[in-house]
Each structure stands twice: as C-alpha cells, then as structure tokens.
Amino acid sequence: MVSIQAIRTANNSIASQSPTAVFAGATSGIGLAAIEALLQSTTSSKIYIIGRSSAKFAPTLAKLQDLNPSAQLVFIEAQVSLLREVERVCAIIRGQEAVLDLLWLSQGGLSLAGHEVTPEGITANYAIMQYSRTLFMYKLMPLLNKSADARIISILAAGEEGAVNTTDIGLSDPKNDGFFSAMRQGVTMMSLVMRELSLENPSVSFIHTNPGMVSTAVHHKLAETMTGYLAPLSWLLKWGLIPVVYFFGWTAEEAGQVGLYELTNERHSASSGKNFFRLSENAENAGASSILSKYIEDGTQRRVWEHTMEIYEKVLAQ
Ligand SMILES: NC(=O)c1ccc[n+]([C@@H]2O[C@H](COP(=O)([O-])OP(=O)(O)OC[C@H]3O[C@@H](n4cnc5c(N)ncnc54)[C@H](OP(=O)(O)O)[C@@H]3O)[C@@H](O)[C@H]2O)c1
C-alpha cells in the first residue's frame, strides 16, 4: 500500500512537469483538490476546467490562480451531462491545443430521485457518469495520442464491478434503473469502455480509480434527492453516514493527492508495459474481477462499446 506521505513526496517531485490538462467534474470535491495539488506541484501548467457556471466558479478560479500565478487556467462553461455540450467543448479544446497530457473525469454523483432522462433522451445518471466521460475520452483522443505520457483518469469505483443488463445496457426502462444495480452496471461499463479504448490507444494510460469514502459534498447532494418515503433515510444519511465519512474517510485534499499521484507517477504510465489500470483508494491494483474477465472474453466489452457508439450516433446526429 502506498502511504499518503509517500504520495505527497512523489507529487512534490514533479516540479519539472508542465502538463496541459482538462478537468471535468472538478468544480468541487476530489477534482478541485486534484487541481490544487497539480498547481502546487508544477509550474506553467495549462488547465482547462469545464463547469456549469463561470460566474459561480469565478471566486474559486481566482484562488486557484493565486496558488500558482505561472499556470494558465481556462474555464469553459458547459453542461456536461449533455453530449452535444461535451462535443462542443472538445471541439474548442481541439481548436486550441495540439497535444493533451492529462484528462481528469469526475463529473457526476449519487441520486435516489428515481429514473430521470436528459433532454437528449438518455438515462440521466448514465449521461453524466458514463456517456459524458467516455465522449471526452473519445473526442480528445487525437490530442492525447500526441503526448509523450498521456493519462486519463475516471474517478468512479473500480473494484465494484458487477452484472451488466445486456438487454438494456443504457437502462432506458425505469424498471432496470435501480440505485445499486445501475451503479454496479455503470462501474462495469466504465472499466469495459476504458479497456476497449486502451487496446486501440497503446500509448495512452487509462486509469479507472476508486477514491474510497471521501468527505465531499457528494453525500449531502445524495441526501437532497431523498424525498417522500425516503426522507427518514436522508436524516440517517446526514446524521449517521456523513459524520462517519468525515471522521474515518479520506479528506478531499488527500483524495486529490492520490488522484494526482495516479496521473503522474511512473507506475501508471503506458510506458510501464501496461496501459489499463483499475486502482483502489490507496493507488494499488483493485484486484482481479472474474465478471470483467468473463465480459472481456464473451464479447460483452465490445457490445458495451458498440452501444456507446450507437448512443453518440443517435444524439450527436440530431
Ligand atoms: N466522495 C466519495 O466518497 C466518492 C466515492 C466513490 C466515488 N465517488 C465519485 O467520484 C466523483 C466525484 O465525487 P466528489 O466526491 O468529488 O463529488 P462532488 O464534490 O459533488 O463533485 C462532483 C462534480 O461533478 C459535477 N457534477 C455533478 N453532477 C453534475 C451534473 N448533473 N452536471 C454537470 N456536472 C455535474 C459537480 O459540478 P457542480 O460543482 O456544478 O455541482 C462537481 O464538479 C463522483 O462521480 C462520485 O460519485 C465519490
């Protein structure tokens, strides 16, 4: 197990790096902490931050700039649960950059609001957790392939993979969109699409990581979705689980350091001889998954990828 002290030491030794990076889902929590860690550890980095509101983020952006005046920070306002918005943002970045070194993806959260659908007709939790993240990878791949050490990190829950409903991969039927089953399926799909892309892009490192229990706003936001008959459970979450995570979980700052370590240390570079990693909260291997091995062998990995491409063709052609 890599200790947090060892992780901090490793992160403090990357001062010679000046990566160009894109961060989505980093306006708060683990992602924001990872940007802070990157700014504290490097000089002259260029960081694109994609978020829902430039006005709301302006004070935080000013604080980030103060952390490292040599860095170039570019905020792009976009609603990344909409695939056409992701496509627009990626076109802007492709128009401005020739090379991209780091892609950070942590947009999303937890919701018990029931089955919701985006204006583009996609199951809402999947739009943000799954299709949005994969589209960023796919559309920015030409730039990542030009980097000497490109890394993509998706902050979700490697190690928690489970069964995929192969007859309704997108969980468009509300009956299939249960909280736990949808979460397991989304996590599995993340591992499968990252592995599929890793085969086609051997010089890019694909990292699906599980940050563990981290004290961020994500659990408070989950509590807000627990209304009606779930309201008593929301009380339990607020006064039971959230304090436990606060006292016994990781801080966002620590999780951000772990994320930066996974993005920059040699062990997780494509030059290590491997370019697809499933990591646990301490940056170690999340362990073999028999269900993933089965899905790789029986063609489910390919079907999940083809399903994802079909969603893009349908939505982006409109
Ligand atoms: N914290 C944990 O214990 C934990 C554990 C395992 C996995 N994770 C996963 O890690 C990821 C990051 O979590 P976190 O703890 O850093 O949470 P967080 O502080 O709530 O950050 C979530 C980020 O995603 C963005 N986001 C959420 N819903 C969105 C939507 N519908 N449209 C656009 N942007 C949206 C937020 O933007 P705004 O600022 O605009 O809201 C924010 O930038 C999440 O996917 C979470 O499920 C977290």
Sum this structure up briefly.
The protein has 318 residues and is an alpha/beta fold. It has 11 helices and 9 strands. The strands form 2 sheets. Strands 3-2-1-4-5-6-9 form a 7-stranded parallel beta sheet, with helices on both faces. Strands 7-8 form a two-stranded parallel ribbon.
Integer tally of domains: 2
Radius of gyration: 19 Å
How many H/I helices? 11
Portion in beta strands: 5-15%
* Overall 3D shape: globular
- SSE arrangement, N to C: HEHEHEHEHEHEEHHEHEHH
Hetero compounds: NADP nicotinamide-adenine-dinucleotide phosphate
Order of neighbouring strands in the sheet with most strands? 3-2-1-4-5-6-9
CATH secondary-structure class of the largest domain: Alpha Beta
The main sheet comes to: 7 strands, parallel
Question: Which ranges are low-confidence, i.e. pLDDT below 50, for 5 or more consecutive residues?
Answer: none
C-alpha end-to-end distance: 48 Å
Helix content: 40-55%
| Multimeric state | single chain
- Give the beta-strand count: 9
Average pLDDT, rounded to a whole number, is 96
Specify the CATH architecture of the largest domain: 3-Layer(aba) Sandwich
The fold-level CATH name of the largest domain is: Rossmann fold
Structural class: alpha/beta
Account of the protein in words:
Helix 1 packs across helix 9 (252-264) and helix 5 packs parallel to helix 6. This protein has 318 residues and is of the alpha/beta class. It is 49% helix and 13% strand. It folds into two domains: 4-212 and 251-316, NAD(P)-binding Rossmann-like Domain (Rossmann fold, 3-Layer(aba) Sandwich); 216-248, no CATH class. The protein has helices at 4-11, 29-41, 54-67, 83-96, 124-144, 179-200, 218-224, 231-248, 252-264, 290-297, 300-316; strands spanning 20-24, 46-51, 72-77, 102-105, 150-155, 204-209, 214-215, 250-251, 276-279. NADP nicotinamide-adenine-dinucleotide phosphate binds at residues 25-31, 51-52, 79-81, 106-110, 128, 155-157, 211, 213-214, 216-218, 221.
